[in-house]
From TrEMBL:
Record organism: Eoetvoesiella caeni
Similarity-based family: Belongs to the EamA transporter family.
Name of the protein described by the UniProt record: EamA-like transporter family protein
Boundaries of every EamA domain copy: 34-167
A Pfam short name: EamA
UniProt KW keywords: Membrane, Transmembrane, Transmembrane helix
Subcellular compartments: Membrane
PANTHER family tied to this protein: EAMA DOMAIN-CONTAINING PROTEIN, INNER MEMBRANE TRANSPORTER
Lineage, highest ranks first: Bacteria, Pseudomonadati, Pseudomonadota, Betaproteobacteria, Burkholderiales
Membrane topology of this protein: Multi-pass membrane protein
Main location, first listed in the record: membrane
Signal peptide: none
Length: 177
């Protein structure tokens, strides 16, 4: 529908504003790499959403989530070693709590939630609604880490939220006259 196209365009404009490609040179190559990884992750989610929509599931998300975590572990370990270097964690209880949260809770649980939502929402709606994730992440980093809310970030958040609202809010129908 027209509102879905406009909402998707607003969401895309919001993402571009948040990534702020005009400032990449000033921020250095690390920022460029980080933004490219975020775009890569978004493309992977888009492929996942379309796959979920058009394939026939044989197993439930709860059965697949542990395998998803295990299969992803090997390339992620290689990727982290290549780009970050050897493991330097301290083995503290705090480290293990962060790993426990990031693994089963933040990854596997969200994977199952997206699969469940994808069953009762159309692909366009779920894709745009997921743009709320970087907005929540940004707002959390502002509150917890003291990140500065710049003009491009503000414009990006506004555009993304407008796109989400445009697509996700129920449409009102005109009463017959």
């Amino acid at each position: 529908s027209k509102s879905q196209w406009i909402g998707a365009l607003l969401g895309l404009m919001g993402v571009v504003a948040m990534l702020n490609p005009l400032d990449w040179r000033a921020q250095g190559m690390n920022m460029l790499y980080a933004n490219m990884m975020l775009i890569g992750a978004a493309i992977c989610w888009a492929i996942c959403i379309l796959h979920l929509r058009y394939s026939r599931a044989v197993s439930s998300a709860y059965h697949l989530a542990p395998w998803q975590m295990l299969v992803a572990l090997v390339p992620l370990l290689i990727f982290s070693y290549v780009f970050v270097g050897p493991y330097s964690g301290d083995g503290s209880a705090e480290l293990w709590l962060v790993l426990l949260y990031t693994g089963p809770l933040a990854t596997a649980f969200c994977f199952c939630a997206v699969i469940a939502a994808n069953r009762w929402m159309n692909s366009a709606t779920i894709s745009i609604a997921m743009l709320g994730v970087p907005v929540v992440g940004l707002l959390t980093s502002i509150v917890v880490l003291g990140e500065q809310l710049t003009l491009p970030l503000t414009l990006g958040v506004i555009a993304i939220l407008a796109g989400i609202l445009l697509i996700c809010l129920p449409k009102t129908k005109k009463a017959p006259t």
